[in-house]
Each structure stands twice: as structure tokens, then as C-alpha cells.
Amino acid sequence: MIPVPAVGVVCLKGDAVLLIRRGTPPRRGEWSLPGGRIEPGERLADAALRELREETGVEAKLIGLVDVVDGLFPEVGRHYVLIDYAAIWTGGEPVAGDDAAEAVFFPLEEALQRVDWSETRRVIRHAHAMATAHGARRGADGLVIASEPDSVARGQDDR
């Protein structure tokens, strides 16, 4: 199996997490994070926001990199290198698109119960903690607002 780079997004709206029900293998029918393969020449952050938009219709602001996870799916002969970002919802209502069968914001604890894969649950918990640690605060409407974007989200090239 040749590793395939892919992105995932933990999109937070208040205390809710955006999940999709997968419409295609691997893990078809299971709840997961929006995401998918990176296009040739596409920056990681751009791929994350594109996949989020394509699968859910939602717009968000990335606040940082959560983790990089190996997704080994021998039943379909795939090895994904999943690059997961944390994001704060900025607009749009979830509508399933692309290869998602459903797209729904769930309260954090319910989202964690719906996800079968322990690595996804861990990434969601970490992203939720990151939102707090990165200075996220609640606006007058109760939604989480990120203060400053992370350099990862800005796609800086000055390394």
C-alpha cells in the first residue's frame, strides 16, 4: 500500500463538532470528520478548507494543526496519512456533498459517542482543547471565536 496524503477538519461551532456520515469506503456509513485527498500542488490548509466546503457546505477558519495520523485500511487496500486541523465555523449550514451521506453538528459528547474510531475521538478531544488554549472565546451569540490565526492556517512559507 502506497501512503496517500489526506486532510481532515475538526470544525467547531460553540460546543458542537461537525461530523459527516461516510458515503464511500473506507468506513462507509460511519460518522467521521470531513476531509479527503490533497490535490497535486495544493497547500494542506487549502485542501482542508476545500474538503470541508465540498463535503459539508460549511466555511471555517483554521486555528492549527491537531495531529498526523496513519489510517490503515487493509480491507480496501489503502493507507492514508491523515493531516488533521482544528477549525472554527464561520458560516454555512451543513449539507452533505461530495462523498458524504450526511453532515451534522453534534454536541461534543454526542459526537464522541457517534465516532467509532478511537483515533478520531482523540483528535476531536485534542482540537476542542486547542480551541480553548489558542485563545478561543465565546461571542455574544455563544459561538466560539478564534482570536489569532495560527501560522499553519496562514500557510507561511518562511521556514
From TrEMBL:
Q: Name one GO molecular function term.
A: hydrolase activity
Lyase keyword on record: no
Stored PANTHER family: ADP-RIBOSE PYROPHOSPHATASE, DIHYDRONEOPTERIN TRIPHOSPHATE DIPHOSPHATASE
Name the chain's protein.
NUDIX hydrolase
Q: Which cofactor does it need?
A: Mg(2+)
Which top-rank group of organisms is this from? Bacteria
> Per the record's keyword annotation, is Transmembrane helix included, yes or no?
no
Location of the Nudix hydrolase domain: 2-128
Q: Which organism encodes this protein?
A: Brevundimonas pondensis
What family is it from? Belongs to the Nudix hydrolase family.
What keywords are annotated for this sequence in UniProt? Hydrolase
